[in-house]
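Good morning C.,

I know you're traveling, so I'll keep this short. The sequence:
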Amino acid sequence: MPAMSEHENLSGGEHQGREAAAGPEPAVVGARPGWAGAGNGADAGYPAPDPRTRVVGPPAPTPADEQGAPGAAPTGAPYADVPRQGEAAAPAPARSTGSTGRVVAIAVAAGLLAGAVGGVGAYTVAENRSSTSLTAPGTVLPQSSADLSARPDGSIAAVAAAVLPTVVQIEESDGRGGGGTGSGFVLRGDGYILTNNHVVAGAATGGGSLTVRFQDGTSVPARIVGRDTSYDLAVVKVDRTGLPVATLGNSDGVRVGDTTIAIGSPLGLEGTVTSGIVSALNRPVTAGGSGDNSFINAIQTDAAINPGNSGGPLVDAQGKVIGVNSAIASLGQTQGGPQSGSIGLGFAIPVNQAKRVAEEIISTGRSSHPVIGVQVDLTYPGPGASIQAVTPGGPAEAAGLKAGDVIVSVNGRVISDSTELIVAIRSYAPGDTVTLGVKSGSGTKDVALTLGSDTSQG
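The tokens, ready to paste straight into the viewer:
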């Protein structure tokens, strides 16, 4: 039976450009065919992603939909299909990728221009039909004075004013004519910036480069300090000091219904602010592409997140970062309509997880992942994750687990399949002790297990 190597899938090792081997698709809560993923897909047995699409897009265009054709929809944005009833899916990274991102941005600008021209045309026709002025000469319509006062604390305007200076746009070039834009935010005043791995991955190869653009309009080159494909996180560094720093919150205190504010550069439109609420917590999500699957214990939000928002902060009503915007779900063209943008399904990496990874990368250039030392059976129908093999000398063996046991919970959190197990374990740190609910034979027991560590370098 195909098995998912928990060691390999939690290693976060670099697999750029590697094609994933075909295999049975796991029953992923937060994932289904057609959703983009990033991570160690080859070892996990995930279906091979199309290497031409860093993220999942709509089906191949018909001639009428080709770039530049009249009425053509923008292509290349990281969209994914909506799951069937009762089935969640792993969304695509919300990053504006490659030259396509630029085409979409240009298309948006062209659309605005066309609207302006159309408006002038309509006004001219109206004037030709009648010589009557829209307002009588000398008429002054009533208007209130501009409100230049500071907005109250906790308002979206006040939060945006405080957080915007800490948010940056990241422009990536792969050195081969490709590239794209994403977002990030300042972790330290001496130039350390956090973003998604998929935002900067193209620049990690020879000839690639990164440019960081600040809210004041200045741009400076940046270098990659380290990255983690499994967590879809990266730290970059610019040679600047005295930068305004984002305030990190505590994602353990986030609750469904809390206010969320997303800030970033969707479609290259830097400094864009959208708002919503926390729609769900602990959403198991796999995201990415090119053979690199990231497993995210995501915060779900209905704040509008679009390609280019990736790596930007998701903040609360106090302006504290609670997550790193990483992925979106979209209808795409699977429902017979045109490609669409945000449908209110955005996903962010919890800041507590991101903080730990960033601290390790800044200190050592590497990050560690918690492991339990098992391989799980991808064909097991559930509920739970069935252990196919136990790593000799690993944490699971030390805890007394054996092949055939089924893990049904982690610290009380119900586990429905192998991906949920990986996502749940990844939300902890190496050295943490967790209680596993284990179905063994005809009974179920609680097993205390201390998580091991697997270190990777991006």
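Safe travels,
E.
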